[in-house]
Amino acid sequence: MIELVIDERCSGCNSCVEICPTNVLEIGTGNSPFIARQNDCQTCFMCELYCADDAIYVGPDCDRPVPVEKQAILASGLLGELRRHHGWDEWAIDSRYTNEHWQMEKVFLRARDTIFPTQSQET
Amino acid sequence: MDEPGTGIDLGKSAYTCGVLQFLEGRKGITQYRALRGPEYMRALRKLVDSLGVTVLDHSPALELLQNSDGLVSGARGIRRQKGGDWQVHAGAVVLATGGTSFLSRPLGSHTNTGDGYIMAAEAGAELSGMEFTSYYTVAPVHSTMTRSMSYAFATYYDEDGAVIPMPSGPDTMRPLARAMLKGRVFCDLHRTPEDIRAKVPVISPNFMLPFRRWGIDPYNDRFEVTLHGEGTIRGIGGLRIVGGDCRTSVPGLFASGDAATRELVAGAISGGGNINSAWAVSSGQWAGQGAARYAKEHKAISGGQPIGQAGLRPSAAANNVDLAATLSAIQNEVLPYDKNIFRSGERLEQSRTILEGVWTEFRSHAAGSSGTCLRTRETAAMLATARWCVASALARDESRGMHQREDRPEIDPHFNRRIIVGGLGKVWTGRDHEPRLELAS
Ligand SMILES: Cc1cc2nc3c(=O)[nH]c(=O)nc-3n(C[C@H](O)[C@H](O)[C@H](O)COP(=O)(O)OP(=O)(O)OC[C@H]3O[C@@H](n4cnc5c(N)ncnc54)[C@H](O)[C@@H]3O)c2cc1C
Ligand code: SF4
Ligand code: SF4
User: Fold this and answer.
1) Whose CA is nearest to atom 4 of ligand 3?
2) Which of B206, B208, B269 is the best mutation test for A, with the most CBs of A within 10 A?
3) Domain boundaries, chain B
4) What is the ipTM of this complex?
5) Is residue A10 within 8 Å of A35, Cβ to Cβ?
6) What confidence category does residue B303 fall into, taking pLDDT thresholds of 50, 70 and 90?
7) Which residue of chain A has the CA closest to B204?
8) pTM across the whole model
9) Cα distances (angstroms) measured from residue A13 to each of A1, A18, A79, B92, B399
């Protein structure tokens, strides 16, 4: 579930408010939006992907809020990782993060051929 | 799909608009397959915006409008960020609201509450294939990460650390569910080759994210796993399609993607792993073209009346129906492995009785207020959908595909038919005797 909107990183663009499918965030009176309905969070990480300033942290636990220390998260290197691995925004030109989703099919074939002779092809 | 004058070839337009970047594989070969969700959604949105389409974000539909001749002629809903309502009178309506997994937590499925099913049923439409709703996807416990590629290399362990043997066939879901009915199940991915481990983040950028945040190394550490029910998301039931343009049996009403049945393309098996997304894009084009043609022939009609019932207009005095308790009651009949994966006529009958009771109470009294109106309506949709699933599973008195009845373990040729289901006050089932519908390619 979403745990943090980090004020000092946030530019106030409100893309997260717009993109969140379950309307968790709300435009605040100050600079940054606030987490208005944490319990509605579906742990989809879309707000992180759409936050160009890497100011959002979504915890991996989807069943309950697990509060985190802001300073620890800032130091963790986890902020912005999803956007980077997606090759999103400024990362689009970095060849280390080129979208290789099409390789998925090959991974299944490798698994089928090397481990399970007839593995399913669900993604 | 290049029929001139009837619509847009989405793939080509997206490409020429420069919004969808296809990927280049080795040797510079362009890869047109395997589009990643967020990238594809972003591209489609850019395309829609570039065409000047009006999009109302954060504006869920609550109900359809229907005129006295039975034609669907618009829809109505709320604007949850801007406030207030919206109502559109239209020559035709396409339902593209997705399926429902009864909020069981597959990644990104919390707005999939089956709203299109109940809206269409209120207009008189029926559904098909609702018994094929027993597919589950593995994920780490407490996580939504139902991305299953890496589990092709998984080793599963029981609570004592013994390896759970997996059959060599494709079905790992059923043995996993059996093991989970006995106790907790753990997993590691140590058999994943090093070169694939290195590629996982650029193939599925979110897969490692929960592990990294929990400090788990899935290639070496054992972590507990669960199975999330997929309902009609990776299951395949949905609104019955009666024409190549994805029309439903109700004039003016069309359906696409997970809102529609995918029996036409998947049969009795899961539509996950390509079929579903191919169907969503194709059926969206067919339905869009069909609806546009229909609207052209039937000039936009005003005077349609909102027809929503359960959760919007209670049949008796409105009072506080506990939404969370209602949702648990629904989930408790359609998600437990011993009720939905390993089915039996007797247990299905019990579920039917329980769900009828919940429905009677909900239909009579539930009415949302401003903050709860969407959730109330969504709950009504999931409740109606659960009843159709159970009724269809009872009506298919055999085992076939993902629908496996322990009391009827064989395929019965009498059931080489689709099971049709519908009705709100009283749920009915029937069999499709229409000639097999062949969709145009
Ligand atoms: C984790 C995961 C991975 C998957 N991977 C694959 C895969 O690799 N290959 C594959 O083929 N399939 C896959 N599937 C299935 C595939 O995602 C779906 O079949 C597909 O997204 C269906 O598209 P759709 O547009 O019909 O529905 P959705 O994508 O569910 O979209 C429905 C939309 O309608 C909106 N909506 C709902 N109710 C209302 C309302 N009342 N008013 C207005 N809007 C509403 C929702 O917010 C949502 O935006 C996967 C599913 C999951 C959960
Ligand atoms: S997307 Fe990021 S920068 Fe923009 S408002 Fe949200 S938190 Fe702030
Ligand atoms: S993780 Fe998804 S549901 Fe949760 S706040 Fe972010 S965008 Fe919204």
Assistant:
1) A41
2) B206
3) 2-128+232-306, 136-229, 323-431
4) 0.93
5) no
6) confident
7) A101
8) 0.94
9) 21, 10, 17, 36, 53
